[in-house]
């Protein structure tokens, strides 16, 4: 029988010490700096922080308010098309509508066009995970092993390209802008490229390697809700087709909130629009394809400028103003308490 006490120290032998080494680091004898908090230093920190936050907040709010923006809800104005799109059997039928509006003042500078959605929840866990990053990199992967289900393959085994719920629900309305000048109608030139991040275009999204895109996607099929395959997203520009299409890349960057906007186009500053959009009458001509009635959603088109702090979003400026106000008020409260205690201390010393 094995002697289990053979590993125990014998009587008289010194037991190994469990104390840390006698070093400055392990014995916590390293030199340290401990601030001496005085009333002057504390109040200075609060008032300086408050002044800084208030200054930055005012600048951000003024900057956000200087953004020119016009937002038009076309959900009800295209009600006939909306009813047509609620029936999935009409997916191949075209439907167009027009929305007129007036710019009372010029919108100078770079003008950006966004589409906005309300009550569309992209932050559901299964929705966010329903994609194949390996497929979007142009790799030959087994889609059935991805998290794209149920939008991975058709019943006959044909894989979808691209797969997943995010790609399948891609926003596919087509929006054109026209300027009504006197008796003529001028189409506003819009840029459809350069709207995505460089890292998306060159790192996260790539087309399969082949001599042309149609052969690269041979053996695949479009997602169920798409009207055309991925290699026909932009037939005019090979560099904006397939997985590297800007509209597709922008849509694949999901939103954290149910109400959001995505960049759609930029106004090309040529001819009548070198300074931006002149005042006058305009028309949005919309090819209505994206249904929103079933989930009680709304659709918007937004024209906006940008400034050094971004678009019209006063949240950051308001946050700085609230923080600066709180720091300044705290400084005054501490000052009042200090003066009250000092007065009481002086009174007792005189007694």
Automatic annotation (TrEMBL):
The record's section on Pfam families has:
CDC50 (PF03381)
Record's subcellular location: Membrane
Give the span(s) annotated as Disordered.
Answer: 1-20
List all membrane-crossing ranges: 37-64, 318-341
GO CC terms of this entry: endoplasmic reticulum; Golgi apparatus; plasma membrane
Q: What's an example Gene Ontology biological process for this entry?
A: phospholipid translocation
Keyword list, A-Z: Glycoprotein, Membrane, Transmembrane, Transmembrane helix
Predominant place of localization: membrane
Family stated for the protein in its record: Belongs to the CDC50/LEM3 family.
Q: What is this protein called?
A: Cell cycle control protein
Q: Which gene encodes it?
A: LOC101818422
